[in-house]
Every structure is written in structure tokens, then in C-alpha cells.
């Protein structure tokens, strides 16, 4: 009876808290952070049960469950349970408004700029200060991606950025060094490409993903968006990228469109020796390492642009606490146990073979001394996150990339491509900006 | 007299009782959501924090939404190729397998099988078949000296690839519907036609096809609705690319509603799609119900 009453008060308290938080949207501190967990439970009695949602199944689920188990065994006050939600974001949409919200959410960081303005995520700044969690232990860029309106909404779980993977044997056979500049990249790509009549046998370099434009643009010294949230690529830097692509695609013919489409694991063109070099992220390392000596590959940071600019796009996941959680303090304890402790961050890293968001763990010899991880560590030092505009991904997918595809297929000039991308992109950004 | 009335009333009551569960489900899961969506299309609903009445703002925004109209053009183009081919092929297959030959059931099963596969799985396999260098389709083309295109990656062929895959997957089901229709055509019509000296083609043209008009109406209506709501195959095969040529309204509505959290505007887009489907279905009704034959 007493417990029931406590739960009821807890619910009312939480409800009041949520109402309070969503009420004051100003920069002031919200009371959510310092209030004790809604229904205590820290001393004796039954442990507090936390729900942790993620959309990783299969191996990923096993990796999450390893961490959950280790945490549950480390103390007896909190019990975390991992729940696989295939369609997590849609499920979260309904749960955030109608109760049943999880306590911890596996979070693709770029979504923060879209969800934080709706007050469904819990800011953690006060908890950070209270527990003395150092911001310096994380990549500033990754924290920035979890920030909206100067409030931090979570901690980084993984960090990633694309680097250049190359087939060692093919480069050695051709007497080439791994490319460090655009010029070297183009020369190597040309030398490694093999055509047999009108059939492409080996592609020197992959041009399959026009979405990498943002990375190339920064290597050329440009930026995707202006300070005031408009597209910023219809300029000299944008042209530099397109003329580089034109050289690779149409003059040197190092690739054919559709070459890698539909090739899954096992038939992956890089694995089967039909592709010599491509940009991809650390998530492919474990897949490629499975092939052992059959696939002798190396990794280098992305080649620098014409003026020596180096760039890559940082991405990755984080853990956040939904505003609807009834046990925010306990959820925070779980998150800091995992993401602000070197041993546990390493356990996660070794279990999942992901680069952990916690920097001290990256200094571990496991990463720092490994020639295949090390280039990623170097890349992360200069990698930047995508612009934090809620319409950014739509601008890329519906405005920019379709035009780039026309350009790559030789159906639109570089000037038209950039001009149309700008008009369509600016409109999409405007249509999808934050509504106050 | 009164007993008959009583019986009728009793029967009517029982009938209503029987359809009540279905009607309840229909109201709860179809009528109410549709009414709510209509309401939402006049708000700035974002699922999480807002639901204010914005009047016709969403519908005004539709006018300038060139991407939405582009996706409508895409599915119309798709429908123009897909629907007639679908009818011709499934009618043809229906005629072919409407015989009493040994092993004909085996063929019926074969033709029907693709329908049973999941759209996503089938599209994944087709992606492999359509691969420009290693795919079966271009492999066969190369035997006759043709360099096949990068089917799903090129703007010229991407939509054709989707037509191909969706046809392969849907003619089987329509073949069954035609088959059922064919077996309902009374034999005496053919007999009298034969007496009048009609050949095989005449019989198909003047008896089978007109007799199957209700079937064709059903098949074509479903095909039109399906075509305008194209999503899964297009999503797996091309993700709407290249250059937006295979992006469809449903994809856009989903993206606007669930990814961008602009559920109000997405509802308005969905209503335009619903209206388009209604209009094309009505046109189709006029065409198939017309006294003159359609061919």
C-alpha cells in the first residue's frame, strides 16, 4: 500500500517536473537535474528497474546486454533491462507523449537538434557539474552534437569518422604509396583502375556515395552552411569538389555508377578485390578483418585538399535520458558508469569494436598502437560534426544529392548543379527549421 | 404478412449483428484515424509538443512544394507503365493457365510464388540480378552483344527497374483473380459463338474480355491504388534516387511526418495523395464501366 502511494507521488512529481521543464524554455536551470530520483529506492528494498531502449539487434543486442549485465552485477540498487525496439524512434514518439517512456535511450546524435527543442530529452548540465564529469574527456564536436541552446542532452557512446581504406597488395603491385592529397588520390585511382572493353573489372576508387560531398567540401576549404543557416557551397570550393569528381568519374573513369549497388557482405567489392580504395568508417574494420590474409588492407586519414585542408565528418551515437523517465538519477548513474569510466568504456570498446566516446579509453594501447585504429584517432582530431540544423539531412538527401547524382551522370553542368542545389537546399532548410 | 416482416426484421438484426465486429474495427482503425488526420492537416502537430490550428497554412505550403509534385509525376509515370502491363500480363497468364492440362497447377503455383515473397526480400535479390557488372540480367544481355545499363543507378532506367520488379511480384495475384473470373464465364456463350463461326481471338475479344469487365475493374483499381502508394520496392531498390526520379509521395510523407516531425504538414500531403487516388479510381471506373470496349 505504502509503495503504491509512493509510486503515485512519484508519478505526480515527475509529471510536474516535465510540465515545469517544458514551461520554461529560457536558458535558466531546470529543476529536473537536482531533484532526487522520483521514488528513491537507493537504500535497501527492491532495486530500481530501468528500461534501456535501442534499435541494435543481433550482435549489437548482445553487446548492449554485456554492458547491462556488467552494470547490474557491479551494484544491487539498480537493475537495467535492454529492450530492443526495431522502430525505436517511432516508438519513442508515442511513448514520450503517452507514458511508458524508457529511462535510457540509445541515440543517433544528429537527431538532437530535432528533438531537444520539443523538450522530450532531459538536460544533463547540472548532473555533469554535480558529479564532476569532465567535458575535456570527450571530443568537443561530439558534445556539440548533443547540445541545443547551450544545454547538453547526453554523453557520446561512440565516435566515428570516415578514412581512406586501401588494398595494400594492389597499391604495392602498382608501386604506389597510400595517397595523402587529392592529387595523389586521383593518380592512384587512375593507375589502379582496370577496364576490359566496356566492362569495369577493378574500380580504382569508389564514387558510390555523393553524400560524402560535405567531407570533400571541407577538404577544399569550404563549409556546408553559413552561420545563419543557409547553404554555402555554391562557390569556388564547391566547384573545386565537382571538378575533382569530374576528373575521377568522367576523365579518368575510375568508377562506374551502380558498381557497388546490391553488393552485400561477402560480395563487397573491396573484399573481392574489385575496388582498390574507398572512404568508409571504423564500423567496417571488424568485417574486413574477418577475411584475414585474403584481404590485406590499410587505412589512412582522408587525403588533404588542394590547399592542404584536412577534413572528415564525425558521427556516432550517444546515450540520453528522456524527459519522461521516472528514474533520471539512476539512469544517469548507468550512463556515467558506462561512458565516464575508462574500464567500462574499454569493456564496451572491446566488446563492440567501436571507438568509445570517452577519450581516456582511446589512449589505451588497444587503439593507440593498432595500425588500423590509429588512422581513425588521427582523423577524429580534425573531424567535424554535420551542421546542427534540423533540416540539414533533408537538405542533403532531397536537395543536394539528387543534383550531385545528375552531375556525376553527366546530365548537369557543375554550375547548374551548385545553383540548383542552393535554391532547393535553402528552401528545404527554411521549411524544416526550428519553429519556436 | 406480418410473419414475413418479422422474419425479415429478425434476419436484418442478425445480419447487423454479424457485420458489427467488422464495422467497429473499420470505424476504430479507419474512419476515426482518417477524420483525425484531416483535422491534423489543419494544425502544426509535431507529435511531441505542439498542435495549434494553423488554418490553411499547410495546404498553401503544398503549392510551392516542388518536390511533392515531382514525386506525384514519378508515380504517375510509374502507373502509366505499370497498370496496363499488369492487366495485360495477368489477363494473358490467366488465359494460359485456364486449361485442363496435366501439371497446369504446377505452373499456376510457379506464377503465383513471387506474390508470396516479401517485397523487401524480393527487391534485395533483384538488386543483385540487376547489378551492372555481375548481375544475371546484364550477363544475359552481354551474350547478345548489349552492354546493359546500371539499371537502378541510372536516371533513365531506375523507374523501369522498379516497374519490372513490381510487375514480377504482382501479376501472380492478379492472374488468380482473372482465373477465378474466367471460370465463371458461362460455356454456352462460347458454344453459340463457335456455332456462329467465331475464331479463338474473336471469342477472347467479344466474350471473355467483356465478361471479365468487373474483374478488370477490380484488378485495375487495385493496381492504380498500389501504384500511387508505391514505397517498399522503390525504397529498397533505389532509395528514391538517382536524382529523385524514383522518390514517391509515400516516402515523402513518411519522411516529413516521422523524420522531420511535421505531422500536420505530412497529413496535408497525405490528403492530397488520397484525393489523387480517389480521382484516378473514379476515372478508372468510368473507363472500365463504359459500354464501348476498352481496347
Report on this model:
The complex is a heterodimer of chains A (436) and B (295). By secondary structure, chain A is of the alpha+beta class. In chain A, the strands form five sheets. In chain A, strands 2-1-3-14-6 form a five-stranded mixed sheet. Chain A folds into two domains: 43-160 and 316-385, 3-Layer(aba) Sandwich (D-Maltodextrin-Binding Protein, domain 2); 161-313 and 388-431, 3-Layer(aba) Sandwich (D-Maltodextrin-Binding Protein, domain 2), CATH 3.40.190.10. The two termini of chain A are 44 Å apart. Chain A has helices at residues 2-23, 58-74, 88-98, 112-115, 125-131, 140-145, 168-173, 182-192, 213-219, 236-251, 285-289, 328-339, 342-352, 359-362, 365-368, 374-382, 392-408, 414-431; strands at 48-54, 78-84, 104-108, 147-148, 151-152, 154-156, 160-161, 163-167, 194-196, 199-202, 277-280, 297-300, 313-315, 317-320, 384-385. With 295 residues, chain B is mainly alpha-helical. Chain B has a single domain (63-289), classed as Orthogonal Bundle (MetI-like fold), CATH 1.10.3720.10. In chain B, α2 packs across α13 (263-289), α3 (66-97) packs antiparallel against α10 and α4 (104-116) crosses α7 (158-182). The longest helix of chain B is centred in the first third of the chain and has 39 residues, at 2-40. Chain B is flat. Chain B starts with a helix and ends in a 6-residue tail after the last helix.
Amino acid at each position: 500500500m505504502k509503495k503504491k502511494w509512493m509510486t503515485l507521488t512519484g508519478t505526480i512529481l515527475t509529471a510536474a517536473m516535465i510540465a515545469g521543464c517544458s514551461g520554461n524554455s529560457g536558458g535558466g536551470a531546470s529543476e529536473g537535474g537536482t531533484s532526487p530520483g522520483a521514488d528513491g529506492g537507493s537504500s535497501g528494498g527492491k532495486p530500481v528497474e530501468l528500461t534501456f531502449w535501442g534499435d541494435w539487434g543481433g550482435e549489437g543486442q548482445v553487446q548492449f546486454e554485456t554492458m547491462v549485465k556488467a552494470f547490474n552485477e557491479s551494484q544491487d540498487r539498480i537493475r537495467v533491462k535492454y529492450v530492443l525496439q526495431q522502430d525505436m524512434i517511432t516508438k519513442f514518439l508515442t511513448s514520450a507523449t503517452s507514458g511508458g517512456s524508457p529511462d535510457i535511450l540509445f541515440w543517433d546524435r544528429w537527431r538532437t537538434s530535432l528533438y531537444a527543442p520539443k523538450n522530450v530529452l532531459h538536460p544533463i548540465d547540472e548532473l555533469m557539474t554535480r558529479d564532476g564529469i569532465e567535458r575535456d574527456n570527450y571530443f568537443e564536436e561530439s558534445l556539440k552534437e548533443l547540445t541545443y541552446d547551450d544545454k547538453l542532452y547526453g554523453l557520446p557512446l561512440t565516435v566515428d569518422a570516415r578514412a581512406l581504406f586501401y588494398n595494400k597488395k594492389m597499391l604495392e603491385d602498382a608501386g604506389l604509396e597510400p595517397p595523402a592529397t587529392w592529387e595523389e588520390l586521383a593518380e592512384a585511382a587512375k593507375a589502379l583502375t582496370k577496364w576490359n572493353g566496356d566492362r569495369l573489372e577493378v574500380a580504382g576508387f569508389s564514387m558510390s556515395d555523393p553524400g560524402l560531398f560535405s567531407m570533400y567540401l571541407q577538404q577544399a576549404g569550404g563549409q556546408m552552411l553559413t552561420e545563419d543557416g543557409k547553404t554555402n557551397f555554391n562557390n569556388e570550393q564547391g566547384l573545386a569538389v565537382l571538378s575533382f569528381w569530374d576528373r575521377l568519374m568522367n576523365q579518368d573513369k575510375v568508377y562506374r555508377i551502380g558498381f557497388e549497388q546490391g553488393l552485400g557482405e561477402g560480395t563487397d567489392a573491396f573484399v573481392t578485390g574489385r575496388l582498390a580504395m574507398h572512404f568508409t568508417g571504423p564500423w567496417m574494420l571488424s568485417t574486413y578483418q574477418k577475411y584475414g590474409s585474403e584481404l590485406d588492407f590499410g587505412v589512412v586519414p582522408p587525403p588533404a585538399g588542394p590547399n592542404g585542408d584536412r577534413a572528415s565528418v564525425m558521427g556516432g551515437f550517444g546515450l540520453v535520458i528522456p524527459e519522461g523517465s521516472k528514474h533520471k538519477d539512476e539512469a544517469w548513474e548507468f550512463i556515467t558508469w558506462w561512458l565516464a569510466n575508462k574500464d567500462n568504456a574499454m569493456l564496451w570498446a572491446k566488446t563492440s569494436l567501436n571507438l568509445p566516446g570517452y577519450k581516456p579509453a582511446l589512449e589505451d594501447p588497444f587503439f593507440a598502437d593498432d595500425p588500423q585504429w590509429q588512422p581513425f584517432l588521427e582523423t577524429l582530431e580534425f573531424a567535424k560534426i554535420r551542421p546542427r540544423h534540423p533540416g540539414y539531412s533533408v537538405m542533403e538527401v532531397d536537395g543536394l544529392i539528387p543534383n550531385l547524382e545528375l552531375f556525376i551522370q553527366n546530365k548537369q553542368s557543375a554550375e547548374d548543379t551548385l545553383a540548383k542545389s542552393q535554391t532547393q537546399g535553402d528552401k528545404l532548410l527554411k521549411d524544416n527549421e526550428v519553429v519556436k | 404478412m406480418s410473419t414475413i416482416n418479422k422474419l425479415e426484421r429478425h434476419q436484418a438484426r442478425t445480419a447487423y449483428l454479424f457485420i458489427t465486429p467488422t464495422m467497429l474495427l473499420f470505424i476504430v482503425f479507419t474512419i476515426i484515424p482518417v477524420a483525425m488526420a484531416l483535422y491534423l492537416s489543419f494544425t502544426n502537430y509535431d507529435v511531441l509538443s505542439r498542435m495549434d490550428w494553423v488554418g490553411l497554412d499547410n495546404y498553401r505550403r503544398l503549392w510551392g512544394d516542388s518536390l511533392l509534385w515531382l514525386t506525384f509525376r514519378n508515380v504517375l509515370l510509374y502507373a502509366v507503365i505499370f497498370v496496363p502491363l499488369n492487366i495485360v500480363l495477368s489477363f494473358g497468364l490467366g488465359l494460359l493457365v485456364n486449361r485442363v492440362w496435366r501439371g497446369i497447377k504446377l505452373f499456376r503455383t510457379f506464377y503465383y510464388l513471387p506474390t508470396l515473397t516479401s517485397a523487401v526480400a524480393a527487391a534485395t535479390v533483384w538488386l543483385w540480378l540487376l547489378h551492372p557488372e555481375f548481375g544475371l540480367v546484364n550477363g544475359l544481355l552481354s551474350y547478345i552483344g548489349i552492354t546493359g545499363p546500371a539499371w537502378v543507378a541510372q536516371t533513365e532506367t531506375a523507374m523501369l527497374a522498379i516497374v519490372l520488379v513490381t510487375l514480377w511480384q504482382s501479376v501472380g495475384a492478379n492472374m488468380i483473380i482473372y482465373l477465378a473470373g474466367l471460370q465463371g464465364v458461362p460455356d454456352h456463350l462460347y458454344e453459340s459463338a463457335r456455332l456462329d463461326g467465331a475464331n479463338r481471338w474473336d471469342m477472347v475479344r467479344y466474350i471473355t474480355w467483356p465478361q471479365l469487365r468487373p474483374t478488370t475493374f477490380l484488378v485495375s483499381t487495385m493496381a492504380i491504388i498500389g501504384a500511387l502508394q508505391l514505397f517498399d520496392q522503390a525504397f529498397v531498390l533505389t532509395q528514391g534516387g538517382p536524382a529523385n526520379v524514383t522518390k514517391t509521395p509515400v516516402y515523402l510523407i513518411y519522411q516529413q511526418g516521422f523524420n522531420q516531425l511535421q505531422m500536420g504538414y505530412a497529413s496535408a500531403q497525405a490528403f492530397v495523395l488520397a484525393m489523387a487516388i480517389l480521382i484516378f479510381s473514379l476515372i478508372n471506373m468510368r473507363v472500365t464501366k463504359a459500354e464501348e470496349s476498352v481496347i
